[in-house]
Every structure is written in structure tokens, then in C-alpha cells.
Amino acid sequence: MAFSGPWVKDPSSCPKAIVVLFHGYGANGNNLLPLAEALQGKAQREALDVAFWLPNAPHVCESTSQGRQWFSLKSIDLSSPLCMRTEGFRAQLRHAGQWGDQAIEKEIPQHFHAFSGPIFIGGFSQGAAVAYEIGLQNRVVAGVLGFSGFYDLSHGVHFRPPLFWSHGTKDEVVPISAMEHVQAQCLKHHLSLECHAMADEHHEISLRGIAFAHAFLKKIMASKSKPIYV
Question: What is the pLDDT of residues 141-161, one digit of tens each?
Fold first, then answer.
């Protein structure tokens, strides 16, 4: 299987960490280029030695042929945790997580043969659900970043990475209640979650959210903690 999507990296060196970012519904990897460049922090003179891969989802979007999707959102109410617990939804998300895990396994060695550092994953909206699925169910990662996303942990977790979540309080696509739901479930499962409710922000990745995420990456990279297995 061929994988696609842009990289943001220094071609002359092997990075200290790699971040894989999954785009939202109806978009593609190029849409997250500004996020990757901002998370690197070069403009703030706090650059992280990190490479980013922004994979394109495997499916043409059902609502616009110009974009891609990780899974269908037909008949899905993103404000309802019960809707996310149906077997149909879970099967789609499991498949997306397995695809993303396989993509990471095959793509990174093609660009950095000797890389053995930490891998972070993250995503926006639907991409956040994919990132959380991979990081909690499929693969040991250094941390997971979610922006304006949704997820349900009622089926349990296999891994316990540090988690980050940023969400606008006025999000009209995925309501802030989705973050509150994840927050409550993480507390129940004793997961480490850094959560930011962004006042008056909508369905977006804001500069404030990026600043918090950059600090999260910097903190984890500076620590010597190891990933935790359930």
C-alpha cells in the first residue's frame, strides 16, 4: 500500500522526535502544514528538533471529492457518546487506527532509517479521533495531541501515553461537550490529560492552542519518562 502526504523536516539531519498529524474530514495533509510549522516553533525562536509527517487519508471524502476522509460521518452525531459506541462506528475507527499504525510503521523508516527516538501523533477533528485510537489502542507513542476532536474510551485502552486536548468553547461542529466527555473518561481510566477549553473559539486550531501544544511537546521531549502499558 502506498502512503502519501507532505513532510516538514530538515533534510540534512535525523530529528530528535517525529510528529505524525492527521487532518480533518474533507481536508488533506497540506491543510496541516501551517500547524506543523508553528509547532516547530521557529518563529518564536524556540524551535524543536522535530520532523512532521502529514499523511493523506485513504478515502475520498463522501461530501466533497476534493478532500479525503479517515472514515464516514454519515448518520454520526458527534455530540452523542452513545453514537460513538455503536459497533459500526467502532469498526470504522478501528480500521482507521490500524491503517494509520501501518502507515507510521512503513513510512518513517523510508525517510529516517536509523530513527529510534520518540514518535508523537496528533490530529484535528476527525483526525484527532484517529490519533487517539492509535495512541491508546495500537502503538506505544510519546504523546497524543487532539484539536477540536471527539473520542470515546468506554471500550478501554491498551496504552497510556500523555494526552493533550484543545477545544473551542463555541465549536459549532464538534461541541465542547466532546472534550468534557473525554476529560471525564480519562479521569476514570487514570490517564494523564492536559486539557484546554479555549474561550470563544470555534472549530479551529488557534494560535493559543498551538502555543499550549508546543509547550506540551517541549515538556515531554525534555522528560525521561517511558511510555506506560496497561
Answer: 999 999 999 999 988 899 999
More confident residue, 22 or 47: 22
Cα-Cα-Cα-Cα torsion 134, 135, 139, 143, nearest 10 degrees, comes to: 140
Angle between helices 126-133 and 87-111 (to 10 degrees): 80
For CA atoms 97, 101, 106, 111, give the dihedral sign. Answer: positive
Q: Please state, in angstroms and rounded to a whole number, the distance separating the CA atoms of residues 27 and 145.
A: 18
pTM of full prediction above 0.85: yes
Integer-rounded Cα radius of gyration of the chain: 16
Number of other residues whose CB lies within 10 A of the CB of residue 102: 13
Tens digits of residue pLDDT in 7-17: 998 777 889 99
Task: Count each helix (H run) and each strand (E run) in the chain, helices first.
Answer: 5, 9
